[in-house]
Amino acid sequence: MFSPRAFVRVWLPIAAFTALHYGTGMEHDWAHDVLRRMYYLPIVLAAFDHGLRGGLLAAAVSSLVYLPHAFSLSPGHHHDPGGGVDKALEVLLYNLVGATAGLLADRERSRRRELQRALADQQRLTRELVRAGRLSALGEVVAGLAHEIKNPLHALAGTAEVVGPLIPPDADERRMWDIHVAELGRLSRLAERYLSFARPSPSELVALDLRRVAEQVAELCVAEARGKRVEVELDLPDTPVDIRGDRDQLASLGLHIAVNALRAIASTGRPGRLRPESRRANPRIATVNCPGQPAGQRPTRVSNRWAMSRGA
User: Fold this and answer.
1) Among the four residues 41, 165, 201, 289, which has the most C-beta atoms within 10 Å?
2) What pLDDT score does 203 carry?
3) Could you state, in order of their start, the residue ranges of all structural domains in the chain?
4) Which of 53, 52, 41 is nearest to 105 (CA)?
5) CA 88 → CA 79, 115, 204, 222, distances in Å?
6) Hey, CA dihedral for 111, 114, 119, 122, is it positive or negative?
7) Sorting pLDDT into bands at 50, 70 and 90, what band is 298?
8) How far is CA 234 from CA 143, 275, 309, in A?
């Protein structure tokens, strides 16, 4: 209310109208009527700029500076020659107009803020939809690549079944052949996992061992971890961590967390370690023991701990 803008738009006009009012002779009735109503202009501007508080303050100041001129009985003083009732109602209207305009201005500001928040939410949702569309397209590409990779793998696996019996069990080449067959199986499972990630199916809750999910995620991210100089270290209990859940969705979630962890470690420019852990608090619930987790915090239904530690 006391900024340079308020001084120009509110206080200077009030002072100017008051000076003109006090300096105008009583014989100029029309001039007093005009000047009396000119106070509405700074009152409304104050309400638009500062809301209810600004409108009421400008109305109160206008009333205070006008009242001595309106009802002064001092001899030789130029007072407003208008009727007493008219002048009293004018002062009352100053305050009513200031309050009404201020309330309307505050309501308009509130709606504008709501619209700005709604617009920001809409823009955020639009960005998320665009990102989801890109991820969907990327998923289709991954699905196509995984499918194309599986076709020659099936052919190689069929060839391995034919050639395998031809190699004697005690031959030196047998060990290399077994490694070859094992790697074919691993590549086939890897392609199948990427294919399931790219084409998610409806959730199907089944009994599963959370350790197997952690192993699956570690196998999927080990190649990227090696390129970022990050060691993937599994820390799993000896006993099963039995839960009910969707294996593919849990693995997808774990892979997403692991990739984010790899990027965070790589951003430091130093080697690091990624360690998936699975722990069970009781026979039904698998919990997370995160660093800094308050004691007694309610455990989550399913969780993994992804501990990141920077190497020396």
Assistant:
1) 41
2) 64
3) 4-118, 203-310
4) 52
5) 14, 41, 78, 85
6) negative
7) very low
8) 28, 6, 14
Predicted structure pTM score: 0.45
Longest dimension (CA), the chain: 133
Sign of the four-CA dihedral 143, 149, 152, 158: negative
Buried/exposed code over 230-264 (b: 16+ C-beta within 10 A; e: otherwise): bebeeebeeeebebebbbbbbbbbbbebbeebbee
CATH assignment of 203-310, given 2.60.40.1640, 3.30.565.10, 3.40.1740.10, 3.30.360.10? 3.30.565.10
Q: Contact at 8 Å (CB) between 254 and 217? A: yes
Torsion, Cα 289 293 297 298, to 10 degrees, reads -50
Strands 242-245 and 230-232: unpaired
Strand partners, 100: none
